[in-house]
Amino acid sequence: MKKVFIFPPNSLILYDLVKRFGYEPLAMMTEIGKKVKNPEIDSPPCNITSEEPRKGLRYCAIEVPSGVRGRLALIGPLVEDADAAIIAEETDISFGCSGCARANEVIKQLVFEKGIPKLVVKYPEDEKEAEVFIKEIMNFLKSIDRGKGK
Predict the structure, then answer these.
(1) What class has domain 3-145?
(2) Between the ranges 48-52, 55-59, 98-102, where is the mean pLDDT highest?
(3) What is the pTM of this model?
(4) What distance in Å separates the CA atoms of residue 101 and residue 106, rounded to the nearest whole number?
(5) Which among 12, 60, 117, 123 is least buried, having the fewest CB atoms inside 10 angstroms?
(6) Cα separation of 80 and 100, whole Å?
(7) CA-to-CA distance for 97 and 19, rounded, in angstroms?
(8) Which CA distances in Å does 46 have to 31, 37, 75?
(9) CB neighbours (10 Å) of residue 63?
């Protein structure tokens, strides 16, 4: 099963679409779920250890704020594991936001640098655009099965 990184990385809409079409969505919620359910972490919602920001150094410089490094520690490995990516742009805040514009910029850059097939699609603002949004995603997912993609 092909793994598809979704952006925003906590978008339930993209997660559901990717899963419905038979792919494994790579999303932040899954990674956070592992952390929250881990008995070694004593006090959720403080569900990261001191190691997470250090892991994030693989993706950015030490001068980058620890919040960015912490997000990248969770999301960077997802990008590394991805066979393809779907990036929704101009999204509404309720669509799914990791809460940090700088982390989002680095995440998108990681996707582009990896060179995997990717679809960059505008977030729909009405029903007609929503239909186009879903069709574009469906066509993209079919294209990665055929070894194509953008």
Answers:
(1) alpha beta
(2) 55-59
(3) 0.84
(4) 9
(5) 12
(6) 20
(7) 20
(8) 14, 12, 17
(9) 5
Task: Tell me which DSSP letter residue 131 carries.
Answer: H
| DSSP-derived secondary structure for 29-90 | HHHHHHHHT-TT--STTS---THHHHHGGGTS-TTS-HHHHHHHHHHHHHHHH-SEEEEEES
pLDDT digits (tens, 9 = 90+) for 117-128: 999 999 899 999
List the one residue out of 121, 99, 136 whose CA is nearest residue 21: 136
Q: What is the mean pLDDT of residues 33-50?
A: 63
**C-alpha to C-alpha distance for 91 and 86, rounded to whole angstroms:** 13
Task: Measure the CA–CA gap between 27 and 9, rounded to whole angstroms.
Answer: 5
Q: How far apart are CA 35 and CA 150, in angstroms?
A: 33
Identity at 107, one-letter amino acid code: I
What are the structure tokens assigned to 1, written together?
A: 């099963």
Closest CA to 100 of 59, 144, 66, 68: 68
